[in-house]
Amino acid sequence: MHEYWTEFLTVALAHLLAVASPGPDFAVVMRQSLCRGLKPALWTSTGIGSGILLHITYSLLGIGLLISQSVVAFNVLKWIGAAYLIWVGFQCLRAKPQAPSDEPLQQALPSESAWQAFRLGFLTNVLNPKATLFFVALFSVVISPDTPKWVQGIYGGWMFVATTLWFCGFSFFLSGERVRRVFQRCSHWIERVMGVVLFGLAARLFAATRD
Predict the structure, then answer these.
(1) Residue 96 and residue 83: Cα distance in Å, rounded?
(2) Rounded to an integer, what distance in angstroms lies between the CA atom of residue 124 and that of residue 119?
(3) CA-to-CA distance for 87 and 78, rounded, in angstroms?
(4) CA 189/CA 194 separation, integer angstroms
(5) 50-59 pLDDT, tens per residue?
């Protein structure tokens, strides 16, 4: 296993840079943390991590390469992903002011089940064609074809854990009591801003190319 450490560190660094960069995942976790509370944010983060598992699976099977090389398949995924971001953004724009309250912010807003929060993170990640291209490039360029599948699976497991922990940590930070108190009075504006951001991200997806 020691001969794969250099490759693993390259994969881990590339993945860290991708996860830390602002994008749809970052936007929805921020929105969930500031406007819904810690529990929904953690479920959304877990959904994002689970989406990573799907990307890894089809990359290992070679399906991702087929998607990246097919104009039709890529465009269909791009349009579905952009449409989903527009739908989520529209929901954010409908946010209304909440009366000041001492109760946790997530109790002052319409309830959201664990499944709804998980689904939001999962679909946001899975329907992002840029994530598809990233993992295809990772498994076809960075990772050697001679690397055993079980070793590639370990790489994938690490990326799943790292992604989930990253966004869960982000959720804990933004859902802290002090941060929550600061943003409680303007939570509806945060949601609306996130809606505009998601519209912008959707526009970027519409304009995305396989290059």
Answers:
(1) 23
(2) 8
(3) 14
(4) 8
(5) 999 998 888 8
